[in-house]
Amino acid sequence: MKLFFILLLCIPLITADLQIGFYNSSCPQAESIVLSVVKKHFAGDRSITAAFLRMHFHDCFVKGCDASILIDSTKKKKSEKAAGPNLTVRGFNIIDEVKTSLEASCPSTVSCADIITLATRDAVALAGGLNYSVQTGRRDGLISNAADVNLPGPSLSVNQAFQFFAAKGLTLDDMVVLLGGHTVGVAHCSFFRDRLDNFQGSGVPDSTMDPSLRAQLVKTCGSRPNNDPTAFLDQNTSFLVDNQYYKQILGNKGVLQIDQELALDSSSSGIVAALASDGNGFMKKFADALVKLGRIEVLVGGAGEIRKNCRAFNAPSLTSSRKQLG
Ligand code: HEM
Ligand SMILES: *[C@@H]1O[C@H](CO)[C@@H](O)[C@H](O)[C@H]1NC(C)=O
Ligand SMILES: *[C@@H]1O[C@H](CO)[C@@H](O)[C@H](O)[C@H]1NC(C)=O
Ligand SMILES: *[C@@H]1O[C@H](CO)[C@@H](O)[C@H](O)[C@H]1NC(C)=O
Ligand SMILES: CC(=O)N[C@H]1CO[C@H](CO)[C@@H](O)[C@@H]1O
Question: Is 312 close to ligand 5, i.e. is its CB under 6 Å away?
Fold first, then answer.
């Protein structure tokens, strides 16, 4: 009898996994609520596609896709948000708005980690990418420490950057396809300024950068010396999810060093060329790679919690949603 109960308790642990339509019965409106808020914001600001892609990447690469990136720092502890590479992640207010709307319809049901995943999917589709099906059922993490943030920097070689992806179970193809996220969005000059005049401390520009792009970036970055301006990562279709990024880097118009390295390094140049010449293939691969990104080290079943407020862990008195494991 006792053994029977132990087995019974174990079943949810064994079968718990992400599923397409995880909220079909617990919150049937979940996906349409996310879409309506994202759509509203996208109509006024197409740059939110970039915001969510980067937020999703940073969330999933630090402690898995568990919304740890959304936690605000407290006086006592600096959360992931307070770490250098996270400084310029944006879109937090839109996530809050989605959460408020979801809590009104389905309290304590839809995780913040799933909100990031769904908002990314919707924003990609609105920007011309595929409207792919994405699994849900992630739970929110209980840890967010600035010290845990260890993300690849923009001046790494392809092989160095790949070590970060391999550690998350991703392939070199996955990395090259995911860096296609740089088909939208911007980079602050501080992340690539050395390439314009003092590449790796050499005193001269990065010779791999197209001279006309360099001239343009010198103008952009030099214009307001007291702050840190931004430049588009994709010089042509800066707000569209398409394969232009790969065409740009093949033409030496990568803004970040890692972007340019991707086209030049013999390990990745073939993948880049293939993606540059197959727009539809890129769309499908990008969607598949985002689904794979969204599965990294997720919490499912009774792990973690469903946060009421994406910026804070539930108070101990609210932990009824923190299911007890048998
Ligand atoms: C080796 C891997 C990567 C490196 C070194 C890297 C580095 C960077 C850097 C330095 C920026 C500029 C940030 C700023 O100035 O605010 C940036 C922006 C961005 N990254 Fe990446 N990134 C990587 C992978 C990815 C991946 C996998 C995605 C998503 C699939 C992604 C999506 C973005 C987007 C959309 C932006 C623009 C953000 C905005 O406009 O607010 N990146 N990245
Ligand atoms: C939710 O509904 C969709 C569409 O009908 C279906 O494809 C999916 O398998 C369902 N998921 C679950 C977990 O019921
Ligand atoms: C994606 O597909 C769903 C289901 O067909 C649809 O309701 C939604 O409007 C589509 N999203 C976008 C951004 O087109
Ligand atoms: C910009 O992108 C459009 C649409 O993909 C393409 O037709 C055009 O050739 C591109 N222009 C440049 C200068 O890359
Ligand atoms: C807002 C924020 O978190 N800023 C921090 C980002 O990281 C840099 C460098 O680690 C810190 O100096 C900032 O305080």
Answer: no
Torsion (CA) 311, 316, 322, 326 in degrees, nearest 10: 150
Alpha-carbon distance of 281 to 174, in angstroms, equals 13
Which residue puts its alpha carbon closest to atom 6 of ligand 2? Answer: 21
Task: Please enumerate, by residue number, every residue annotated as part of a binding site for heme b.
Answer: 182
Rounded to the nearest 10°, the torsion over CA 33, 180, 245, 41 is 20
Fold of 18-150+293-318: Peroxidase; domain 1 (1.10.520)
Q: Cα(23) to centroid of ligand 2, in Å?
A: 9
User: Does residue 84 have its Cβ closer than 6 Å to ligand 5?
Assistant: yes
What is the fold, at CATH topology level, of the domain defined by 158-292? Answer: Peroxidase; domain 2 (1.10.420)
CA–CA distance, 261 with 243 (Å, rounded to integer): 17
Task: Express each pLDDT in 245-281 by its tens digit.
Answer: 999 999 999 999 999 999 999 999 999 999 999 999 9
> Where in the chain are the domains?
18-150+293-318, 158-292
In one letter, which amino acid is 30?
Answer: A
Residues 109-161 have pLDDT tens digits of: 999 999 999 999 999 999 999 999 999 999 999 999 998 888 999 999 999 99
Half-sphere exposure for 262 (CA within 13 Å, toward CB) = 33
Question: CA–CA separation, 229 vs 191, rounded Å?
Answer: 11
Helical residues (DSSP H) of the chain, grouped into ranges: 2-15, 30-44, 48-61, 92-105, 112-126, 158-166, 172-178, 194-197, 211-222, 244-250, 257-264, 269-276, 279-293
Q: CB within 8 A of 163, min separation 6: which ones?
A: none
Q: What is the pLDDT of residue 326?
A: 37
Q: What are the φ and ψ backbone dihedral angles of 236, each rounded to 5 degrees? A: -100, -75
- Say yes or no to pLDDT of 300 above 70: yes
pTM score over 0.90: yes
